[in-house]
Records
---
Amino acid sequence: MGVTLNMAAQVMATRDGLLGASRLHYEHRDIVEFCREWVAIAEISVHVGLHLGVTRVLVADLIALKFLTTRGLDLPEDRQTQIIERVIRGLTAIR
C-alpha cells in the first residue's frame, strides 16, 4: 500500500487519473471520477457504498498509481474519528 491515510485526509483526482479512469475496475474508476474536487475519505466511502476501511485501501492504491493526490489535517486520532463520524452521519441523513 505505501500510504497511511490520515482519517481526515482529502483526495483529488490527478490529470493522469482522470485520463486513465476508464482503464480501472469499477470501484477504483468510481472513486477517481467522484474526486474531481477535494473530497474527504468518508464522503467517498458513502458515495461508493463501501466500508471506510475498504475505501481507505482503494484510495491508497490510487495514490500509489498517482491517480489521486492527497492532503491531510494534523489532528489527534480521536478528533479525526469524531469528524469522520459526523460527516458520515450527515451524508447518510441526506441520502
---
Amino acid sequence: MPTAIMNPELGNLRRAMRRRFGDAVEIDNVLIPTMGGSNRTMLFDLIEGGTTRRLVSRQVTLAAAESPFLPAGYQYRAMQVAVKHGLAVPAPVFEFDAADGMGDGFVTEFTAGESLPKRILQDTKFATARENLPGQLAEFLAKLHAIDPAEVAFLEPYVESRDPVEAFRRYFDLYREAHPALEVALRWLERHRPPPRRRAFLHADLRTGNFLVGAHGLNAVLDWECCHIGAPAEDIGWLTTRSWRFGNIDLPVGGFSKREDFLADYRAAGGAPIDAEEIRYWEIFGLLRWAVYNVMQAYAHVFSGRSSVVFAACGRNTSMIEYDLLMSIAGNYR
C-alpha cells in the first residue's frame, strides 16, 4: 500500500517542479511505495496545460556517514552514463538542490512495470517475460560492463570500488555486534580472493526486485545506489545469490534461470568468460553483504529512529542468511 504524504513535502515538490517547468505546472496523483530501505521513492504526475507526464522522485534517506549507499548526485550521474549507452534505465530529468527543500535526491522519467518478485516469478501473465529475462539481463550486464570505466571515474574513490570485501568489513564493524558466522565469512572471503580481473562499471544491485518487468520481459533497471567499479563477476554473483531466488532454489539466476544458460547469454552478448568458482565466490560475498545490510536496517529500527516492521524483520533475516552463508562456504549449497 502507498503511504501518506505530508503537505509540506507536497509544497516542496510543487515548488521544485515550478522552478524548472514554470509557475503554471501542477502535480497530482502522488504515491509513495512502502518498499525501499535506502531511498524514498515518490511517483507523481506533472501537469502542464493539457499534458500529463508521469515522473519519479528519489530521495536518499540515510546520511552518508551512516550509509554504504551512494549520494544521490553519484546515482544520477551513473544513470546518465547508462542512458547515454542505450541501456534500459529510467531517464534522469534533474537533481534537486538546496532551494527545493527535498534533500539529497533527483527526478527521473517514470517507467511502467512489475517489480515484486513473487508476481514476476509466479504470475502466468509473466510467463513470456520469464523466458526472455535471462537473455535480456545478460545483455544488459554485458553492455554495462563494456562501458569504459573512465566514464564513471567519479566512482573510483568510493570504498567499494577499491575493495568490496574490506568495505563490508568496515560497515559491519560500525555496529559492534557479535555475529561469528559473519566473521567466518569475512575471513573466508579474505583468504579466497579470485585473481584480479578487468575492472568494469557495475550496477552492483541487479537482482529480482530491482528491475521492472512487462509482459515481454525487462522494461528498466532501477536502484543505482550501490554502483561502483569492480570485477564483472561481482554483478553476476549478486544476481545469483541464494537470497534472490525467492524459493526457486534450483534456478540460481533470480529464481528464473540456470547459471550456465545465463553465462552463455552473457558471452553471446559480448561479455568475457567467467569461471564458475569466481561466481561462487561472489555469491558468498553477496550473502555476507545482504547480512550486513540486514544488521544495518535492524539497528536503524532499534536505535536510529527509522522504526518499521520491515526493518524489524531484518534482525530475524540476519540469522537466516548466516545459515545460508555457512552452508555455502561448506559446499552444501550451490
